[in-house]
Amino acid sequence: MKTITLNTPLDMHLHLRDNDMLQTVAPLTAKSFAAALVMPNLVPPITTKEQLKSYAQRIKIAQGEEDFEAHLTLFFQPTYTKEFLEEVREDIIALKLYPAGITTNSDGGVSNFDIEELRPTLSAMSELGIPLCVHGETNGFVMEREAEFVSIYEQLASAFPNLKIIMEHITTKESVEALDKYPNLYATITIHHLLITLDDVAGGMLQPHLFCKPIAKRPIDREALRRVALSGHPKVMFGSDSAPHPQSAKESCGCAAGVFTAPIALQLLVELFDKEGADRENLQKFISDNAKNIYGIHPKEKRVTLEQKPFQVPPIYGNVVPMYAGEEIGWSIGLVE
Ligand code: NCD
Ligand code: ZN
User: Fold this and answer.
1) Which of 165, 227, 242, 273 would bridge 262 by S-S if both were Cys, CB 3.0 to 4.6 A apart?
2) What CATH architecture is 9-300?
3) CA 271, 21, 244 angle in degrees (round to 5)?
4) CA of 307 to the centre of ligand 1 (A)
5) Where is 13: in which H helix or E strand?
């Protein structure tokens, strides 16, 4: 049986939620990943040291016995002071900026992208070496939102050359092209955006469990994403954007955005890299090494062996339906040590 061992897999964009949902999903990521960057879009969003401390505690309890480190993020607000950011520095890995209202629980996000408006927080972050993660979509036509946002990335990257800016869950060739133009722009890519296009979401019967923000784009965009992921491009990291919602919120009129991939992300990634004949070293870079370099983190080692043997994806975890529910995928998780 063919096997592939990953050293210290990292998920650099993850939604763990809270309460019952946290209990359901945290162990699934904690089992096969060494660490993750956890998003702050709770209700209310995470904006204080107290919230950071207590969320970290709740995650610790929910992850159980697994060796796993949750790196928290703070919900971006334009007027944080340097003193405040210094106080929370040890509790966070980055700040996450959402345009107001663009996605799940982002109402408190940024509505004015004038650089001067954002300067107080961004210059403090830049001085303290805190990276900025961005959900890069305008409120334009849904297929163009990310491409339209690239000019904002460019303004941010030139105005704050010492600030590391991570373009989260990129879905377009325009974002891929921006990567190499600015030394301080980086990106995460999800497994679902490497696998699907808009056709899979809405080309036949509507597939609510594949609906997310940013929406999956064109084949040409998917090609661009695959090119940088499969080649182990040093500025690109894996971030699942696993975003669980209760079944009732997905299979309803007004479907919530988010694809739940935590329990199958590694299997699907290995399957894709294997099918495409990509170098195993590139997979290792994409799943771990690049993120370590970009964020300067030193996660505790965890070796995860994937086996080329069918895995039947469960129809549901708690009340969350995963991507490919009930279907068979080609790889399974074996030994974790
Ligand atoms: C995410 C969520 O549900 O929190 N949804 C999504 O469609 N990706 C938020 C996000 O990352 O946009
Ligand atoms: Zn997300």
Assistant:
1) 242
2) Alpha-Beta Barrel (3.20)
3) 40
4) 30
5) strand 10-14
Give, in order, the Cα–Cα distances in Å from 69 to each of 8, 54, 61, 97.
11, 15, 12, 22
For residue 106 the two structure tokens come to: 């982002």
Give the span between the Cα atoms of 230 and 275, in whole angstroms. Answer: 11
Residue owning the nearest CA to atom 6 of ligand 1: 258
Amino acid (one-letter) located at 103: T
**Predicted confidence (pLDDT) per residue in 201-259, tens digit:** 999 999 999 999 999 999 999 999 999 999 999 999 999 999 999 999 999 999 999 99
Measure the CA–CA gap between 309 and 332, rounded to whole angstroms: 6
Q: What is the pLDDT of residue 219?
A: 98
- Cα distances (Å, whole numbers) of residue 31 to 35, 65, 69, 193: 10, 9, 11, 23
Candidates 142, 140, 91; CA nearest to 113 is 140
Ordered by start, the domain boundaries in the chain are: 9-300
pLDDT tens digits for range 140-197: 999 999 999 999 999 999 999 999 999 999 999 999 999 999 999 999 999 999 999 9
Atom of ligand 1 nearest to the CA of 257: 7
What's the predicted TM-score (pTM) here? Answer: 0.98
